[in-house]
Amino acid sequence: MTSRLAQACLNSIRWYQRTISANTAPHCRYYPTCSMYAYQAIERYGVLRGGLLAVLRLLRCRPWSRGGIDDVPQRYSVFYRFSWSKAHEEPRLTPLANES
Questions:
Q1: pLDDT at 100 over 60
Q2: C-alpha span between 95 and 77 (Å, rounded)
Q3: What is the rounded CA–CA span in Å between residue 41 and residue 81?
Q4: How far apart (Å, rounded) are the C-alpha atoms in residues 65 and 44?
Q5: So what's the pLDDT on residue 71?
Q6: What is the rounded average pLDDT of the residues 7-33?
Q7: Nearest alpha-carbon partner for 21 in 3, 39, 44, 8
Q8: Is residue 91 situated within a structural domain?
Q9: Total structural domains in the chain?
Q10: Within 13 Å of residue 96, how many CA atoms lie on the same side as its CB?
Q11: What mean pLDDT is predicted for residues 71-94?
């Protein structure tokens, strides 16, 4: 069960996806898109932790980044991308089949 604040954030992200993102050309370098990443992070970790992961993802999403598959980590850590972190996950090369 999510809090009211988390639900409001999730509804805001869905509104953005349906109205703004649906009417613009796709230009995201990552999979899943930044808005979907934020949705999954907030849904999994709540507004504060998930929001921080979403902000860090937005900071990584820039024109000179290589992009690729960047999933929400299974264990929460802002350092999950570094090999020395206990929550480190190797990036996948193909998307999961059951993701929507």
A1: no
A2: 21
A3: 15
A4: 26
A5: 87
A6: 91
A7: 39
A8: no
A9: 1
A10: 8
A11: 77
pTM of the model: 0.83
Domain range enclosing 12: 4-69
Backbone dihedral region for residue 97 (phi beyond 0: left; psi -120 to 50: alpha; all else: beta): alpha
For 61, the token pair is: 């999403």
Q: With contact defined as beta carbons under 8 Å apart, do 17 and 35 qualify? A: yes
Percent of all residues in the chain with a pLDDT value above 70, rounded to a whole number: 89
**b/e map of 32-51 (b: 16 or more CB within 10 Å)?**
bbbbbbbbbbbbebbbeebb
Query: Is 96 inside any structural domain?
Result: no
Q: Is residue 16 part of a domain?
A: yes
State the alpha helices, DSSP H only, in 1-100.
4-19, 34-60
Worst-scoring range by mean pLDDT, 16-25, 53-62, 71-80, 83-92? 83-92
User: In this structure, is residue 21 part of a structural domain?
Assistant: yes
